[in-house]
Design the sequence.
């Protein structure tokens, strides 16, 4: 897997010094953390998306959920229709800052087995998403 290049790369660009800000794609769909798993899956199915950025009531990004994660939770024996995204995302993170290098982000994603990583600013607002290509 390699990081997906979301913007044209200038000739002679040094990949070791490219940052998450340079490589990210638009933040995409953002949903509130009080949304249920069923509603989140419906949103993903209606707007073909592989992931959703989850934000709290203040607009601070608290994490990212994938369709695979939500489907696994929905299909589990412990699932009820009251499970909210905040219960799945838990705490904050992991995230990349705009100044994180692409190499650092790719290493972190491979280590944590993540397909996507939100890029957030200093206040926690989602700026975009880094994604690994398959």
Sequence:
């Amino acid at each position: 897997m390699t990081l997906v290049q979301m913007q044209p790369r200038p000739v002679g660009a040094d990949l070791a010094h490219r940052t998450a800000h340079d490589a990210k794609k638009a933040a995409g769909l953002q949903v509130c953390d009080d949304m249920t798993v069923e509603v989140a899956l419906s949103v993903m199915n209606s707007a073909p998306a592989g992931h959703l950025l989850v934000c709290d009531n203040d607009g601070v990004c608290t994490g990212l959920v994938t369709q695979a994660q939500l489907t696994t939770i929905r299909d589990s024996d412990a699932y009820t229709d009251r499970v909210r995204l905040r219960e799945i995302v838990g705490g904050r993170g992991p995230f990349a800052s705009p100044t994180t290098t692409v190499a650092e982000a790719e290493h972190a994603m491979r280590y944590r087995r993540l397909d996507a990583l939100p890029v957030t600013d200093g206040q926690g607002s989602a700026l975009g998403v880094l994604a690994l290509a398959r």
